[in-house]
Specification:
4 copies of one chain form a homotetramer. By secondary structure, chain A is α+β, with helices and mostly antiparallel strands. Chain A contains 3 helices and 6 strands; from the N terminus they run ααββαββββ.
Chain lengths: 149, 149, 149, 149
């Protein structure tokens, strides 16, 4: 499945859009690797993101996984398109703790309107990576509705 | 399906646990109604929660929906138990905007170990409520592993 | 949310399409109530549908829930459109047994391209109904690709 | 993640249980490869499995994907345990057609009580395989409730 970007400026388009997601700044998340069909987002772990047991809240994981999956789909969309999440599902696999999380979004199937993506959250603790959550989601390419990015 | 709390102090237990979810404070979320099998969480909308088009980020919705669903299940768990999210799935129905969101978590089926919950996110805009997202999730009751709340 | 069919012949359109789903005949499923945004499918329980413990297989439940949800969406689509399932998620709530199952599909949000539906499976045993599974799914309206129904 | 079966007779246990799933015989599904954490199920395509456009019904895909995922988890459970599907979610990626489908179930995370699995459905048409659907699901290990397999 060769993933060919329709827009050669895809990476810049992802970075511009990511910078406009105020919620990513609120979380302290940073855009990492951007490649055709692949986007990573890094989330340093801090107390402000935790649930009642001190683990990273499932919603914080969902947030970076959703953005990573959505932007992975966005790399393959044409210039001028916008990406919207239609739905996603997350399985929590292990308590999320450590010094940082990376959310790795990957396109599973890119369609003209609908793309299906996967994203894995890996937690780093003492130099060891653990898969702590996995998402599958459906992303929609929207054109001509006054949205961009 | 009569929902009978096993622990008469269920509401206090939910409030104590919610206050320990630092991520809810980061979002600016507040605990609302707490009843057997039912928990509401209120989220005032502000720029810090938005995605690239100015709507509330799906991850912020997921966060309050997950907590509302988890605490709805927690109201029916015995004293000393902890609640963990195993998985959840969210469908986004409309762009989330307005002045505030309320996440209404409800238990669909309460089991000894596994509970299934639903949660709806309603956005208020100019006095009108719109259903913007809906979650179904599986919550686990954990006892005797050194976790509480 | 008033659900207005665009095609007054919606019910006939559902019945014609259902009759072409050979898999429903293989299962022994029958179309029940058809109303705007609502479709019920009845599944008499028999040994041919069971899993290893004698309960109805989750896949058989998924099959009638998916069709009920898809046809609920289809009632609101224009004449000439086809409906395709994009994704669905099912939670199993109780072992499914008894004399018959009814899958009740309901539209949660009807869009031009994308509709979100819910479907509940209720098992009848000795005159008592139990909710045994619940589905949420995304249905797509396809026009002009040579598909119909 | 080395997947070590607790029961050396795991493969025989899977085969015995599969043979008791009457619904698999109704579908015409056959058990394929069985290895620790991995189970394949083969489904020859025939008219009896189709939806209204002549593709394999999403419910038939869900059925073999759920069984493949559940039995993948079952390979790692102790002797005497039973496996139950708690929930699963499926994304349909392409219309499912061809001469046969293989559902490849794989364990993502094996826990004492809860296991998370993935399963992919690949359709064979003219010697070419296409990924047509993907499932993630949660499987539960049940002991001492009078169930087996």
């Amino acid at each position: 499945m060769p993933l060919q970007p329709k827009d050669p400026a895809y990476a810049e388009r992802v970075r511009t859009s990511f910078d406009r997601q105020a919620f990513m700044a609120t979380l302290g998340a940073r855009l990492g690797r951007v490649a055709p069909g692949e986007v990573d987002i890094e989330l340093p772990v801090r107390d402000a993101l935790t649930q009642q047991h001190g683990f990273v809240h499932a919603g914080a994981l969902a947030s970076v996984l959703d953005s990573a999956a959505g932007y992975a789909a966005f790399t393959l969309m044409p210039a001028g398109a916008a990406v919207l999440s239609i739905e996603f599902k997350i399985n929590m696999l292990e308590p999320a703790r450590g010094s940082s999380i990376v959310a790795r979004g990957r396109v599973v199937r890119a369609g003209r309107t609908i793309s299906v993506c996967r994203a894995d959250a890996l937690a780093s603790e003492n130099g060891r990576e653990t898969l702590v959550a996995t998402l599958t989601g459906t992303m929609m390419c929207v054109e001509g509705r006054g949205l961009a990015g």
